[in-house]
Design goal:
Elements lengths: L1 H20 L5 H6 L6 H12 L2 H14 L5 H23 L5 H9 L4 H21 L1 H9 L3 H50 L2 H9 L11 H17 L1 H7 L5 H32 L9 H9 L4 H39 L12 H25 L4 H24 L5 H22 L6 H19 L6 H11 L16
């Protein structure tokens, strides 16, 4: 029964991908769903992309190991979504660009897209790979597949539905995944495990007071979660690309706030499930196995299949979002840089033939998807690689991106200098400390970038008036006409 439920779910993902293919008629439709998602679709897809395998399987595992304090990883992600939505989402939605690097070019009038695009591409690719690796934890329990086969199977399904309809396919599948995750975690797994463990009194008696403390995981770890994940959410291409899909600034703001509150509750629920599991099954060897083991041994057959499908949904939603983000950055930002390095004229994307343009985007999704599957199959543990990508993303890009959004005096020269100094300082500190997982690199990178950004902005010529005029028009909601006709909004 459980296997049948998972197979039906996987088949449905492919069917929705095929359905979304009909809507992807041009680049705007393929990459950002025509910029016309209404409140429900936007909230669902935003919540789905940020709640991935790390937040679901990892969040329950942290709850198992640290008790209620295990919630802080997902809470820090929720904080990032809330801050982005309340402070920046409306402004970002009005820009009508496709990438974070495109925002830098629009704001500063400089071509920094290649350099920043490389960093962003490394981050989104590692996010795709980690989500792809996570399939093994579920498919091994259900089908008995080895790790490589699990990675290939899950990865190919994500590549297939993502490539077919782009952001439309991903949005439609995200809605289904959002519903399945909500039912699996809130309606089934949380009440069943909590009840079977004897409720609050029974759990407290079995695991002790320490597991009920908010700070058990450690203050340093909590602070690092907020620095790395909250700030990473603020500038991640996979998240911004969802903001670009909103039909209005209001949808981007309040739909995002709703998604952030949902993520907050999801984090608490995951920690409570893990806490209950530690009372019920104290001898689980790996915290990554807790979610699947509890689903199989605590829930009745059939219901456990829905809960396992929820975990697969979490992994696939993050993987597909990161995949299309990587493909978008690769084509829009990195391809021109590569052409320049080899002495060729910077290529301009030809959008005069919408069907050919969509085929080009689709090819990038397929190629990068296959690359991510190969990397995921070859590497056993890429926590270090993902940490490096996150640290460089935050240390090198946070200051110039947010600085451009909030400070009119910020200049392009300062942005370039901050990117270079922040990235170098982050990497250099990793070598000095001798531990890529240490907290110091991202802090050193951030402080270095901030000092250089402010000082250079004050001592260089302001951004040209014509550049600021275009920027101000976009931010104020009076942009130039979008090059692609936008159909009527969808509720």
């Amino acid at each position: 029964m459980d296997i049948t439920i998972i197979l039906i779910y996987l088949g449905a993902m492919l069917a929705f991908g095929w359905w979304g293919k009909r809507r992807a008629s041009n680049s705007s439709e393929y990459l950002v769903a025509g910029r016309r998602l209404g409140g429900f679709l936007y909230t669902s897809t935003m919540a789905a992309v940020v709640i991935g395998g790390a937040s679901t399987v990892g969040g329950v595992g942290l709850g198992y190991k640290y008790g209620i304090s295990g919630m802080w990883l997902v809470v820090s992600i929720a904080a990032g979504v809330l801050l982005l939505s309340l402070l920046f989402a409306a402004r970002i939605q009005r820009l009508k660009v496709y990438t974070v690097s495109g925002m830098l070019k629009l704001r500063y009038g400089i071509d920094a897209t290649g350099a920043s695009g490389l960093v962003m591409m490394a981050y989104t690719l590692m996010l795709t790979v980690t989500s792809t690796i996570a399939y093994a934890t579920i498919f091994n329990v259900l089908f008995g597949f080895d790790r490589t086969l699990s990675v290939v199977l899950g990865g190919l399904i994500v590549v297939a539905y993502s490539a077919m309809g782009g952001m439309w396919s991903i949005t439609l599948t995200d809605v289904v995944q959002f519903v399945i995750k909500t039912i699996g975690v809130f309606v089934l797994l949380l009440p069943f495990t909590w009840s079977k463990a004897g409720g609050y009194a029974g759990i407290k008696e079995r695991v002790g007071e320490q597991a009920l403390g908010l700070g058990t995981i450690g203050t340093g770890t909590i602070v690092t979660f907020f620095v790395v994940y909250t700030l990473g959410i603020l500038i991640g291409q996979d998240i911004w690309q969802r903001v670009f899909t909103a039909k209005s600034p209001e949808v981007a703001r309040w739909g995002g706030v709703t998604a952030g509150i949902y993520c907050l509750l999801y984090g608490v629920a995951g920690a409570l499930i893990g806490l209950a599991a530690s009372a019920l099954m104290p001898d689980i060897g790996s915290s990554d196995d807790v979610y699947a083991d509890v689903a199989v041994h605590v829930l009745p057959v059939g219901l456990s299949g829905i809960v396992l499908a929820a975990a697969v949904a979490a992994m696939m939603s993050t993987a597909s979002g990161a995949l299309i983000a990587t493909a978008t950055v690769a084509r829009q930002d990195v391809l021109p840089l590569v052409a320049q390095i080899f002495g060729r004229t910077r290529p301009e994307l030809d959008t005069s033939d919408p069907e050919a343009d969509v085929r080009g985007n689709r090819l990038y999704v397929i190629v990068i998807g296959l690359v991510s599957i190969v990397i995921a199959a070859l590497i056993n543990d890429i926590v270090s690689a993902l940490t490096i990508a996150y640290d460089i993303l935050v240390g090198g890009l946070l200051v110039p991106i947010l600085g451009g959004l909030v400070w009119r005096r910020a200049t392009g020269t300062a942005a370039m200098a901050a990117m270079a100094v922040g990235t170098v300082a982050t990497i250099a500190t990793m070598f000095v400390v001798g531990d890529v997982l240490a907290n110091e690199p991202v802090y050193v990178g951030l402080v270095s970038a901030l000092v250089v950004f402010v000082a250079t902005s004050l001592f260089t010529e302001p951004t040209p008036a014509n550049v600021m005029s275009v920027w101000n028009a976009r931010v104020s909601g009076k942009p130039e006409e979008d090059p692609v006709p936008v159909p009527a909004p969808i509720a």
